[in-house]
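Figure 2 data, in text form.
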Amino acid sequence: MPLVHDKVITIERHIIEQQERSDGATGDFSAVLRDLTLAFKIINREVMRAGLVDALGATGTRNIQGEMVQKLDAFADTVIYRAMDHTGHLCGMASEENADILPIPEPYKCGKYVLLFDPLDGSSNIDVNVSIGTIFSILRRVTPEGTPGTLKDFLQPGYKQIAAGYTIYGPSTMLVYTAGRGVYGFTYDPSVGEFLLSHDDIRIPPHGTIYSVNEGNYHKWDRRMQRYIDWAKKDIPEEGKKAYSLRYIGSMVADVHRTLLYGGVFLYPADIKSHRGKLRLLYEANPMSFVVEQAGGLARDGGQRVLEILPEKLHQRTPLIVGSPQNVTEVERFLKED
């Protein structure tokens, strides 16, 4: 793997260097990110050998979303919790797989931050060997330090995130994160057991020719969204526009990752079945929107900036339009029509 620098930069080194640029940094936040990388390495190990250790398939139970829990879902959920519950840096966690806040167990102390995560996004694709991933979001608590975290600490708008990112488990394993000062990608080198900087200061192209959406839901959408899709698929010579290409993996991490690097737009609109959208605001939409915005993109819900939505509950859902700024603006132009 070619390095982007003439020196090897591990994610831990990168985190420390970022910390040194922050006034008043204590190291607690940097420790949270370092602890998370250990969980990602463990999850990666199990994903890479899932077919050999009876880790494929469902557990037979359903999560709070009503979705069938896959074995690797449950494994990843447990690994992240156990990697983070004793560090003293968090006052609570919340996972897409659990109905309520995950408390910090006694006798461990409660820290300054809360962690929200989707342990294994795209888990329905596990059995067919398609890329899946982990999404995470970190917020600074708003309740008094030293006490257990409460719902108030978690129900903060996305613009208050102090870090967010994802790990994608695919042909290579890659961790992408932002702490509000740009977006950086690290590729896992199993020979040394480290995430190494491979994508420095990622910037999303201002416009792309790929749209990503589950077009099987076309007839469930608002007619304005249908008109956008019809327009996207057309050659319009007089406007100098060629038809866009549809690319849809069905794993949000993989689809947004491609959009981040190649440009275009990822869409998960509301429909007649899911009037408020389907993606989880706190576990999926907010962290991915924060990453894309930090890379120069846009993230909207069809009416407002996603990161300005004030959450009302842990498992709130939202529509999502995220990607290159020009593409997102194109979609919104159609949504504003009568």
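Caption note: Residues 51-60 have pLDDT under 50 and may be disordered.
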